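Predict the 3D structure for this chain.
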Amino acid sequence: MVEYNGTRLLFDPFFPLNENMGEQPLDEIPPLDGIFVSHGHFDHIAGIPAVCKRYGEKVGVYCTRTPRDTLVTKGMDSGRIYQISPGDVISMGDLEIQVLKGKHIKFDFWQIARTLLNPRMIAYRKNLRYILKENAVCAESGETVVYNIQAGGKQVLLLGSANLDAETKYTKGADMLILPFQGRSDIEKYAMQIISRLLPKQVLLSHFDDSYPPITSSVNTEPFRLLMRKTYPDIAVLIPQINTEWINLEEHNTIVS
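Done. Predicted structure below.
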């Protein structure tokens, strides 16, 4: 969630299948002004129907064509879903959201192998049935986008997947880069390529948790932190905890409880 001057936007909402991560009650989500989707995979849109049901007709959903079609097939009113494309700029309150072309991460052989051959595939077979069913209808279709969020002289670059489009010009030196950190066996080195291209002032890791076992895992972020400390000592790396912190960019880039 991003908030500025009373405007609240939610990005890629989901509810974990992992009971160990705790539950996010719908009634604890504050009023929203919009929901934004980075791409159409189920783990990025799974929570949208429930969140929208809570708010009735008040909240619009902003996404590209494929997730829009998916949400409509799931019963959502097409009139509240706004189709966006790279190049669009959306203003909400004092927040400005620029839509940029992105790219989904490419899973490598070793990541796929260690996921498929893991005993967790049996232990979490109930989850797996749900995931396979959702994955069959929730496509990415090459439509991953990056959001450049601007407000109060600050810029947040939000990636829905750990990859960038080779031809797109992205903001360098953003106040914060939100970087998904899962999907490859060499995720540390892979992420460093993104850091070297964008050179943000700080990095907030996302997607490193085990929300959807058995296809996800809890990624050890410490090797990346050590690599960043050695290579880019001036770029802070933040590892957020669910429901416990706000990160305030207006107060000297510190974490505020």
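The two ends are 15 Å apart (CA to CA).
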